[in-house]
């Protein structure tokens, strides 16, 4: 059996050719994603490059994933910020969606306008435990239906509101679906049904919206969100396939053109004594996506997170050159560094994207005072002892010093005290960008996918 996998990214379309008889990747190729015209153009360009490198490749199955044009853009609504709103975001992120904004309580008129301006593909509507408050989810359902945008709605809140929600949705012109509550009981998470609904809507909505219809017809299999494919690959590499062991706890950072995605495969229990955990329990397999931390489409937004004067001083480049590089890359996403200064700027920006994304993903410690004295609280996952950080994405794998970029994920003793980041990780590299490909392949050949990842994803030093 021969497989061809295609990952339609926001910047590049990546093809991977796999031969099960040889048990390996026989070739890879990339081309700039032609989302502005027709994604088939980029696909054909990449296929031509692949066949120049390895010869004609008659594949039996074409498996595809996509995050082209930023993927599935989504907002999530919940009742309480620390509870159902966070559970909604967990469900959306684990399904491969790009969560642009999360709202709590009843949305205001200004927030209605904000959702109109965001123009999401999908809204995940949650709120209330089963049998609890249903006024907020009903009010928000009505207000969402008033917004004159063509987004879909998935309701995953208090089950006792389902009848009223069905009536509200029946009178709207939006595609709506009702599924199980993401938090049926206090502090109990149930994100799998919502995750499946999001995946189904991705298939029915994004394929047409992003120009992937022809690819879908060629493949014959569902096109899934790239982050979901990567998450599946991460889970397989971490846990194994049931017969062969995986590598255990790990973190992966996918630095893309539009977003930076972070994946952690770890229980995240506190690694130090006298720590009290706060908030919702975190999943073993966690994904977070930062829509303002990309190396091309979101580069201007990422620059706003930095003190550019300090950044320019640290890398030894004039600030005007840094600003010029950011403007150029945002306007022309296919721009690549062509001299030593541009390379330093690119590397420095990439390291900061990794640093910020990992700090948002991992847990954080805060001091708390009790009658017994001072203790610390932990909100989120403690990833301090995670032994491995894997780099994914062109800005990492094409850099001469990927370990410098990935060092942004590491806890610096003097600066990152509050963040539960990995303390002394070793760095691996997905040099051929096969995580998404192996996630796709694992649906048919999990043993082979695990074997290939162990072979191809290697230590930097």
TrEMBL record:
<dbReference type="InterPro" id="IPR043129">
    <property type="entry name" value="ATPase_NBD"/>
</dbReference>
<dbReference type="Pfam" id="PF13941">
    <property type="entry name" value="MutL"/>
</dbReference>
<protein>
    <recommendedName>
        <fullName>DNA mismatch repair protein MutL</fullName>
    </recommendedName>
</protein>
<dbReference type="InterPro" id="IPR006230">
    <property type="entry name" value="MutL"/>
</dbReference>
